[in-house]
Amino acid sequence: MKIAILSRKKSYYSTARLVEAAEQRGHQALVIDTPRAYMNIASHRPEIHYSGKALTGFDAVIPRIGASITFYGAAVLRQFEIMGVYPLNESVAISRSRDKLRSLQLLARKGIGLPVTGFAHSPDDIQDLITMVGGAPMVIKLLEGTQGIGVVLAETPKAAESVIEAFLGLQVNILVQEYIKEAGGADIRCFVIGDKVVASMKRQAVAGEFRSNLHRGGTASVIKITPEERSTAVRAANIMGLNVAGVDILRSNHGPVVMEVNSSPGLEGIEAATGKDIASLVIEFIERNARPNRTRTKGRG
Asked: Does any domain span residue 292?
């Protein structure tokens, strides 16, 4: 097969591993710097051009689209879909998962466990908003934040009020969530491929930090998840419409709660923690499923 990988750099760990796994299994993999691709959309023969040439003959495309280029990346991926190329994750599913508010609303509608969550832009009563999610301590997030940026733990009602007022003064949308103290600064990343959790790891925040992101110094270790956690992760990925996803779960007193469903989960941490060849499992999934014009939305979403 001929596989396109949408990624900013060939040197990124996840991208390099996917290229390596594809080539080891006898496939051709081409890394495409997403913003440098350009498209002919109003034509009887839709095309994508890159470095002065039309991209043709691809059987599958793996989107590794960073949050900062979600809009353009989804457009490029959608063009591949219109051309009949099989996407590992569809453009509609990626856009859905990147919208934190929409994704939480969809998960809640399907009964997935979530932290008590409020959403606000300019509430009339900040105290009522704080009370609505159970009071302090509480987590306050910028809706557009990634990798733990724009996430604040407010430990007292006064601190929560001050942080919310500061964010609202910037005219931004925020999420306010209950703080799951019993999680102890740890979350579980479940790596879902198809209808299976193929690997899982515990991410532990460093001392004095509540965010467990590996980018922020958190450590990763292998963990055995419960059947309920496994089912929750698979259902969350399916609700988003993602074939491959990193589902982040907290262990709370009322069962597993989903924090986020990531459409471009990194491979480095999970492969190092578990010793599993996740990249090859991704390529195997493509081998089993890639067919021309097999996109469910066919670029219409």
From this structure: no
